Amino acid sequence: MAVETITETTQYLTFKLEDELFALDIGKVREVLDFTSITKVPQTPDYMRGVINLRGSVVPVVDLRLKFGMAMAEQTVNTCVIIVEVELEGEKVVMGAMADAVQEVMDLEPDQIEPPPRIGTKLNTDFIKGMGKHNEQFIIILDIDKVFTSGELELVQELEGAAA
Question: Which helix (H) or strand (E) holds 53?
Fold first, then answer.
């Protein structure tokens, strides 16, 4: 969904990675969990931290810091896992996204959101829905459906199947 199609006030869950503020459309967020032990799955990419047991379901967990090329962080009392629903070829995939800290749920008006920056052709910024502005701070609004490639999401589904 491009910025031009954001015509109404939308609620976003904001969270921190390093010193940056990110946001997800609240409609994609199922719940936020305190950090729990993660079972590492061999031969997966570094950013694929492993799987957790969520009320009997196997849920893969991705470290968004590593996915975005940031340094791995030590877990703190604020580290959390945001459970999100991602679209994969018309199917909903449930996964966890590790974040340094969840901030708040906020409303952003369409006029508070700008198109993502044009950084050049080599960098893929399709996963950035827009740049929100709130209290003089930029918020990178993610399109969670585009953060992961279909190959990565297929890996997630394989993890769920292997661990089940």
Answer: strand 48-54
